[in-house]
Amino acid sequence: MAGGLRGVSCRPPSDLTSAIGPATALALADIDGDGDVDLFKSAGPSQQAQLLLNAGNGSFHLEPESPDEATGAAFLDLQNDGDLDLVTAQPTLLYNNRGDGLLTPYDEAPAMRGETVVVLDFDLDGSQDVLFGDRYSGLHTYHNRDGQDQHHLRVVPVGDRGTRGGIGTRVEVKTANDQHWRQIMAAASDRQGESVAHFGLGSDSAELLVVTWPSSQVDTIRRPQLDETIYVYEGRTIYTYFATLPSSLHLSTPDTLIAGQTTELELLVRPSLEETKSGIEHVVADLSALGGDGGLPLTAVGVGNFSASLSASRHWSDTLGSN
Questions:
Q1: What number of other Cβ atoms are within 10 A of residue 322's Cβ?
Q2: How large is the average pLDDT for residues 209-233?
């Protein structure tokens, strides 16, 4: 595929509808990096699939050298180079983005059936994989091993004022050399992908992460760590890598404590419901209301166990027993 923005120009809404014809599915993304949403229209058998690039002024340019046909399609970054590529179903093909939104056949094409496609990183290695669905032969997976030597950043928005999954949230990453954005979209009628903004960054470093929520709340994070999955919580200044926000847990002490004897207090804590790799790093006890230390660190003594040795005056023991 060669050339620039050329071919049919049409204006929405009615002209766009008549120009693209019937569609079985749409894939939406900014594939030419100009800040607006482009689209790829899938069609049924013997129907022309079409790539339409958004000119930014309300008109779309139809690229005449689009893939011939496809019943399903999705955009993804195969090589983690920052350019969004295309995968189609029926036929199952991959197309490489040259960097200007124009697509060329990818060297490696998955040899499998598929009518619909879902993009996800199912092995969490930092490269986006593909799940194909077919009504006759079931599910097939394409394991993408390209791009693992490039930087990436995965952002999971956790909404507070709208949907918990952050539907409609715009996520932007600014690097020293470029700027990328993704939008968290709702599920289609026949498929549900990850509610994750995946960014391939190549050899760049991330200077700024900006999350704009449907509520108009804007959260900004400077120099996020690369090659990580980051959970961003709406309206909170703290973001986490495989962790939760600092928690304050209140545990009542027994009515009676005996001097010189060990007292065990048990508490079940789930470090994170969103990430299985999270864990407890440290525990601090606030005993200021009892006349003790306001930030007493507890020592880790085995998996999930923390301990502290306290000596208290009679007055403080009386106070402790009354809490």
A1: 9
A2: 91
